[in-house]
Please model this.
Amino acid sequence: MNGMRTQGTAAVLEARRLIAADLLQDGMKQADVARHLRVHVSTVGRWQRALDACGREALGAKPQTPWSKLEAWQKERLV
Model:
C-alpha cells in the first residue's frame, strides 16, 4: 500500500466499509476481511475500532472539504 486514498466515490467507499462491518459482525477475522476487500489489515482494524466505539454510523462517508493553497487574507483580496 502506498498511503494514497483508495479510488472510488464516497458512496462506494462507504459501501465497502459497511460490507466489512457485516463480515466482522458475522465473526470473520480482520485478516480475512482485508483479503476479501483487498485492503490492508490495519485499515480493517481501524474500521473495527470505529465500529466498536460508535457503531455503523462511524463508517459512513464524510464530506470532503475543499483544500486551498491560499491563506484567508488572500482569498478576501480576490473577492
